[in-house]
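Input:
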Amino acid sequence: MSSRLTGTPTFADLLASAVTDPGVISAAYHQFHSYSLGNQLLAWSQCLARGLQPGPMATYPRWKELGRYVRKGEKAITLCQPVTVTRTRNPIARVDEPDVCTRFIYRPHWFVLAQTEGAEMPAMPTPGWDAARALATLDVREVPFEELDGNVLGLASGRTIAVSPVNPLPHKTRFHELAHVLLGHTSAGDQTDGDLTSRDLRECEAEAVALLCCAALELPGVEYARGYIQSWWGRANPIPERSAQRILKCADQILKAGLPAIHGD
Ligand SMILES: [Zn+2]
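Output:
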């Protein structure tokens, strides 16, 4: 399955393959962490398909600035850029109704290091991710866990989360609860998580975000999350494209929020 117009994989395709092989997420994150998670996976899949060594990636003019040039005949890597489109405003439309929408545009403008030649490139270490910084940036507060029910491992309420001190996978649950907040689930009611027995779309979305974050940062919990997600999103129940977009965007928000500087495409 791929998007009809561009031939590039859909976000649901990218997410499904990442869940099947979570090693791809950490590898793609390390190579392309300054790009969005969706674009990291897009770049990775194209490198693999073309037998290119994944590595630092930049546009043609950017490589020139770095003292390198793209080899003749190299085919650009296609990335997705969200573009805000403002429609021509109807003169009688009310001013307080913004007439804008977001579209995804695929552009072939990037090349990886292996497609270039020239000046030596300095090594680019992956910046450290910090949970406290992520929480502060995302305006979410982690409070002491006060739930008395021993089956509860984590909670999310409003913009507050709590993780049980006896939770064996605290990072995974922190990401899961953060996802409930960022995906707007807590505005529908408090989220209480035990052994993930309830199976609804909200739980699956939050757990998929937790899987992506744990996999990117190489924290434990990936296998557990994967088992849950795969039992829910099997062949008969594919990931809806809209959910896949929400999951990738949310995980990306969490990963970017924990980095020391602002990174963007
Ligand atoms: Zn949950």
